[in-house]
């Protein structure tokens, strides 16, 4: 864990040269995933990929660098499943059929998504079509697809919850969209709960990952931080569902 922290800090120093500050967190990359220069080129690579082209429902994290992708997905008629505020206000669905077209851009923002989208519980997500593609930003990632996010494990928790209720499976592809300076050559090994990306998109490269690890453990409750459980309602909902034998 200390090695991961050292890597993050090194990457964050480089990222500061190309990242756009957040209106709330400035350059505190431990609190948000930054947008960055030439992000448009990385987004174009992603939307041209077959994973995006074939997807009807896409989970897209609420990262600053993915706002344009959320907008593009709505324009392309895709449903966008996402979370907001560290999952603390749960999962939300942006359905282009339910949002006026001239409000797509607003809906793709963190301020607009809760006004234009609708909150969905895990029980409701179980009844929805399966998610076809998972996309996240991250603090750093190596060429084997192992992410170093902000260190909170939100994407792995989101994967674990959706996997546990059957909304995704081991064949569901996941991608990371990052700046080139965030891609590392260092060799690391994923933890049992780490979701390794199938493909990495940068402004200059598309990196396909061979045999990426996909966790099948759901939520490892004994390893879950108590504060995450206490502050994230979907985790509490999943715990109740498991206790009642509903998943």
TrEMBL record:
<dbReference type="InterPro" id="IPR037171">
    <property type="entry name" value="NagB/RpiA_transferase-like"/>
</dbReference>
<dbReference type="InterPro" id="IPR024185">
    <property type="entry name" value="FTHF_cligase-like_sf"/>
</dbReference>
<dbReference type="Pfam" id="PF01812">
    <property type="entry name" value="5-FTHF_cyc-lig"/>
</dbReference>
<protein>
    <recommendedName>
        <fullName>5-formyltetrahydrofolate cyclo-ligase</fullName>
    </recommendedName>
</protein>
<dbReference type="InterPro" id="IPR002698">
    <property type="entry name" value="FTHF_cligase"/>
</dbReference>
């Amino acid at each position: 864990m200390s090695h991961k922290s050292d890597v993050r800090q090194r990457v964050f120093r480089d990222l500061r040269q190309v990242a756009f500050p957040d209106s709330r967190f400035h350059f505190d990359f431990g609190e948000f995933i930054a947008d960055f220069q030439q992000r448009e080129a990385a987004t174009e690579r992603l939307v041209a990929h077959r994973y995006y082209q074939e997807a009807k429902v896409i989970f897209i994290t609420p990262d600053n660098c993915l706002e344009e992708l959320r907008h593009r997905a709505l324009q392309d008629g895709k449903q966008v499943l996402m979370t907001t505020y560290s999952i603390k206000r749960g999962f939300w669905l942006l359905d282009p059929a339910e949002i006026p077209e001239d409000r797509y851009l607003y809906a793709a923002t963190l301020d607009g998504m809760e006004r234009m989208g609708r909150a969905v519980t895990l029980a409701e997500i179980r009844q929805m079509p399966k998610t076809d593609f998972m996309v996240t930003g991250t603090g750093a990632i190596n060429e084997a697809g192992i992410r170093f996010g902000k260190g909170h494990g939100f994407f792995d928790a989101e994967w674990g919850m959706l996997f546990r209720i059957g909304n995704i499976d081991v064949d569901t592809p996941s991608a990371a969209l990052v700046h080139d300076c965030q891609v590392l050559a260092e060799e690391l090994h994923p933890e049992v709960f780490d979701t390794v990306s199938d493909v990495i998109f940068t402004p200059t490269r598309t990196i396909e990952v061979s045999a990426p690890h996909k966790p099948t453990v759901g939520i490892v409750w004994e390893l879950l931080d108590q504060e995450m459980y206490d502050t994230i309602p979907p985790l509490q909902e999943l715990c109740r569902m498991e206790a009642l034998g509903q998943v």
